[in-house]
Structures are given as C-alpha cells and as structure tokens.
Design brief:
The protein is of the alpha/beta class. Helices cover about 40% and strands about 15% of the residues. Strands 3, 4, 5, 6, 7, 8, 9, 10 and 11 form a 9-stranded mixed beta sheet that branches. The protein has a 4-stranded antiparallel beta sheet with strand order 12-13-15-14, with no helix packed on it. Helix 1 runs parallel beside helix 3. The protein starts with 6 loop residues before the first helix and ends with a helix. About 5% of the residues have low confidence. One of its GO terms (molecular function) is DNA-binding transcription factor activity. In the C-terminal section; belongs to the class-I pyridoxal-phosphate-dependent aminotransferase family.
Length: about 475
C-alpha cells in the first residue's frame, strides 16, 4: 500500500489511541511542533491531521488545534436481537432502493462490486487473450469437477503466506463465493437445521439460508468490537447449532475486523460444542493498513473450519471464480458441487493461474487497497459534514462498505425518496436481517467510484433530513 509522508506521525498517534495511551480530549501536538519534529512540510502535517479526522480518531477545534476524539464506541448503537431460531423468510421489502440491484450503466453506492475504473481491464483482457492463444480448443472441454490442480496449488500456497494451512486436495473451485457458501452449507446441514449467523448479515447469504430451508439465530455484531462472542456461546449452549457462519475479516456491511484473540475464542466455542464454522474470507485481501489478517482456519486443529473466498471482489465481478476449503467435508462438498454444475469456466481458471504465477495480481491489490481506503475516507467525511450529529456510522478497516444509522427521528421513507430523487442508492438495513432490527440503518458501498455528483447529492439529502 502507498505510504504517505505523514504516516511517520499519524501511525504513532493511531497506536497511542489504540493502546489507550492517548485518551479522549487529550491535546495533540501543534502543526508547528509536528513539522519541526519530523521535518515535514506544513501541507503534509495538515494532510496527516485531516486523515486522522477522517478516521474519526481526532477532532479539530477552531483556533485550538487538535484533540483525541471522543470514544467511537457509541458511533453505531447496539441492536437488541432475540436469541431464538427463526425461519429464513424475508419480510416484504417496500423501500424504494431495495429494487435497485439490476444491471445498470450508472454505478451506485449499493452495489458491492469494484467500479469499472478499479478493475485492471487491460491486464485481465490481455491475459485472457494470451490464455486463448496458448490453450486453444482445450478451453472448450470440461475441467476437473473440483477445479484445476494448478489453481488449487496456487491458492494453497498463497494461504500459507498468511499462516493458514490449506491442502490443495481439499479445495473445490466454484462459480464465485456464494456457490462456495451454498456447497459448504449443503454439505453439513439439512432442511430445518439451525445455524448461527452474524447480524447484520449481507442479504445474499440470508437468501442461501432460505433456499436450503435452514433456521437461523442471529448473533449481533456490535461496534466497534465485532461479533458478540458471549452471545454466540449462549446460543450454542441453548440450541443444537449445526453451523456458525461468520466473516471475521472486514464484515459486510460494517467493515469490522476481528482480532486473533477473538478468532481463537470463536474457534474454542466451536470446539466445545462440536459445531462447524463456515468462514467467509472474500474481503481478507482488502485491508487498509498493516499485514494481511489471519483466518479462523489458522487456529483449526480439529477440522471444524470450512473457509471460502473469491477473486470476484478483488479482481472483477464477471470473473466468477471462488473456492472452498472443505477439509474433512471434501467428499460431500465435491458431490454437491457436481450436482449443481460440473465444471467452472476453464478460461477463468486459466486466467487466474496466469495472474497468480506473476506479480501482476499482487500489484493490482496494492493499488486497489489504496483506492478503496481513499474512497472510504472521502465517503465518511461527506456523511459527517452533510448529516446531523445524531447520524452514526462505522469506521471500516478494510473491505467495501460502511454501516450507517439514521437518527431515531428520521422519516425513513423521506430519506429513501430523497435518495431516489437524487439518483444515489444505498442498501436498506432491513435486507440484512430476518428481523426488523435495522430499519433505521443502511449500507453505503465505497468500491464504486465516488464522483462530485455523488458527494453533492449526499449533501442535498442531508439538508432535507436536517
């Protein structure tokens, strides 16, 4: 990821806040002091403080400099969920933007895919042409049901780089992440079984539960710490849970990242109650700072964790290519995969093989992460200046999305009508649960290119709601 000059002092301030050495209200060094200590220009120091303000870590006081911002623990209020199994049935959706997911030439802020300008189009198309020339008619034949051997070897090798042991012969190559989830669930559950799932939870995952006839217990994700692990333990103690479905790295929609300690605790609960974990890692490569986060799979010594991911979020949505590390459930997973479609597109597999065998994919990831972080900061700042102080949001550490909460006094219908009028679309919160817990919330995606038109529209929407 690109390193900015101001990182020499912003990293220290962030670390101090994270470790509790700097408390809310503490006065921070002046621009002049930072400039002298680190030999930076005034503009670099100002940009650094602007960055910290955007992250919600620092507050600017007129004519008084900068202080550590008030605790962000209360940025998004906790949600009360009843720990009872529910049938996987959606309530009727009436909000205007819930039907705005069809293909459109106009990018919007409710579609969790990379914008066209963030896709390395020349690289992908050039690689595709090379594959066609080199492989010829072989691309028109079936590939192995569980995917190319070389591709599975490459995926296993990449996982080892961040401490996750995956065997190539346990991998099933899939048509994207959602198919991988379907295969994982179909391999270890039966209709009527109860699964524990994080809440809020992206609606596509909820649809898979519904299609498999599963019942769910929703486990709240609380800001800023993530999944309520004590709540999960109680759920597993009270019910016969057949699977825990969780996104530990940059949860969709909140963008929250679990610590290694939290991942270990979740795994320990799974071991205690002998419950398989289905781990969604589609955003694991899209971190904004530091190193690539670990997986729950890296703690697994009992074969309880099934991990899945996809290249569709990191490279291009049309490149339908995902994978499932099924572990001891591989034989069942392979049979389920065969029953829903024998072979994933050979050309997509060969394109990915070629990219992974070079440095081009990792170069793309570095650029993409930097752009996502910039977009995220820009969107947060626009919300903060456009909406009232009662408007709350999360501060993601990676991934694609922000989770936003409207003030309790907001006319939600007016909000979505204003969005419709302005041509800016967000995903309504009620699509992220089988309950009505998130009707005042919405998801905003920053993987789409933010234009001045988008930002001005958000400002106008904020004025209507004030």
């Amino acid at each position: 990821m690109k390193q900015y000059k101001y990182s020499v002092f912003t990293d220290k301030i962030e670390e101090g806040i994270r470790k509790g050495l700097l408390k809310p209200g503490d006065k921070l060094p002046s621009v002049r002091a930072i400039k002298a200590e680190y030999t930076l220009s005034t503009s670099s120091v100002q940009s650094g403080y602007d960055y910290l303000v955007f992250r919600g870590l620092v507050q600017s006081l007129p004519r008084a400099g900068y202080i550590v911002a008030a605790s962000i623990d209360s940025e998004v209020s906790s949600t009360a969920l009843n720990a009872i199994p529910r049938d996987s049935v959606f309530r009727e959706k009436v909000l205007l933007t819930s039907n705005r997911l069809e293909h459109s030439e106009q990018a919007s802020l409710n579609v969790a895919t990379p914008a066209d300008v963030f896709i390395p189009q020349k690289l992908v198309l050039k690689t595709m042409q090379e594959v066609i020339r080199e492989k010829g008619a072989s691309l028109l034949r079936y590939y192995p049901n569980n995917g190319s051997n070389e591709l599975r070897d490459l995926i296993a090798s990449r996982a080892a780089l961040y401490g996750t042991t995956i065997q190539a012969d346990e991998l099933v190559i899939t048509d994207g992440a959602l198919q991988a989830l379907y295969i994982a669930l179909a391999s270890i559950t039966s209709p009527g079984d109860i699964v524990a799932v994080e809440s809020p939870c992206v609606f596509s995952i909820l649809e898979v539960f519904a299609s498999l006839g599963l019942r769910t217990v929703e486990v709240p994700v609380r800001y800023p710490n993530g999944l309520d692990i004590e709540y999960l333990a109680k759920v597993c103690a009270d019910y016969t849970i057949k699977a825990i479905v969780v996104t530990p790295n940059f949860h969709n929609p909140t963008g929250l990242l679990l610590t290694d300690e939290q991942k270990q605790r979740i795994y320990n609960i799974a071991v205690e109650y002998n419950v398989p974990i289905i781990e969604n890692d589609i955003y694991g490569d899209l971190y904004f700072e530091g190193n690539r986060p670990s997986n729950i799979r890296s703690f697994d010594t009992k074969g309880l964790v099934l991990t899945y991911s996809s290249f569709s979020k990191t490279l291009a949505p049309g490149l339908r290519l995902g994978w499932l590390a099924a572990g001891k459930n591989f034989s069942k997973a392979e049979r389920v995969k065969f029953s829903i479609g024998r072979s994933v597109s050979p050309i997509n597999q060969e394109v990915m093989i070629k990219l992974l065998n070079s440095s081009s994919y990792d170069k793309h990831l570095r650029v993409f992460r930097s752009k996502l972080e910039f977009q995220c900061i820009r969107l947060i700042e626009q919300f903060k200046v456009s909406f009232s102080e009662e408007f709350k949001l999360t501060y993601p550490k990676g991934g694609y999305s922000l989770w936003c909460q409207l003030p309790i006094s907001t006319d939600v219908d007016l909000f979505y009508k204003s969005c419709e009028k302005e041509g800016v679309y967000f995903t309504p919160g009620d699509t992220f649960s089988f309950t009505d817990a998130y009707d005042s919330c919405f998801r905003a995606v920053f993987s789409q290119q933010l234009t001045d038109e988008h930002l001005n529209a958000i400002q106008r929407i904020g004025k209507v709601l004030r």
